[in-house]
Specification:
By secondary structure, this protein is α/β, with parallel strands linked by helices. It has seven helices and eleven strands. The longest helix has 11 residues, at 7-17.
């Protein structure tokens, strides 16, 4: 598991949590079916550069280059996004972040920007009605979370400024249940970005055939 400093603790936690389970599966199925060496993960930490707009190549193999760059998820730090380049095609994944200059810098010219999105007006409505729910923490959480997420409009502004070809929104807050709500969720975003904007869904497959300019989107669950 590749990640910025701190990933070691996360991986060790998972390895510890599943150690007993791994042993049970080997005992139940045998080492041929469930090899003991298949259990657990290995941390591959990397250091981020001091330059706030800097990046670091974390993997380069068989023509694939994966680059990490810092994003703004304060108080979570370090937090990173990733750019994947292969045979002239490129995808950028924002990770969780507020609107970020570093992301804008590192997304320049990408085919697809996959950017998280929170609709502030919708979350504000939830916050205002939080007292109706039997969940005392809902008011505080819905008050706090907009500070470290990005609105669809700001994601669209970043996509336009970075001159990416297609914007895909994911990690949607709040979850969207209907086509009408999806249009409302986008808000001002279409006015800030001339390219296509897609709202991500479970099962969505985005293909970028090498040697072309095509961006193909299908859903494996339909």
């Amino acid at each position: 598991m590749f990640g910025p400093t701190g990933v070691e603790q996360v991986v060790q936690g998972f390895n510890d949590a599943y150690a007993l389970d791994a042993g049970y599966r080997v005992a139940h199925h045998g080492a041929v079916t469930a090899p003991p060496t298949g259990a657990g993960g290995v941390a591959r930490p990397f250091e981020m550069p001091a330059d706030p707009n800097g990046s670091v190549v974390v993997l380069e193999r068989d023509g694939v280059r994966i680059t990490a760059f810092a994003v703004d998820r304060r108080p979570v730090a370090p937090a990173v996004g990733y750019r994947i380049d292969y045979r002239g095609r490129s995808v950028v994944i924002s990770g969780d972040t507020a609107s970020s200059e570093s992301l804008l810098h590192n997304a320049a010219g990408a085919d697809v920007l996959i950017h998280e999105a929170l609709n502030p007006a919708m979350v504000r409505l939830i916050n205002e009605e939080a007292g109706l729910a039997a969940a005392p923490s809902l008011g505080r959480v819905t008050h706090d979370i907009p500070s470290y997420h990005t609105s669809p409009g700001d994601a669209a502004r970043i996509a336009a400024a970075a001159r990416v070809r297609h914007l895909v929104l994911y990690h949607l807050i709040p979850p969207l249940e209907s086509a009408l709500v999806k249009r409302m969720f986008l808000g001002s975003a279409p006015g800030h970005f001339d390219g296509p904007i897609t709202i991500g869904e479970d099962g969505m497959l985005i293909s970028l055939p090498a040697g072309t300019q095509q961006i193909e989107i299908t859903n494996l669950l339909r």
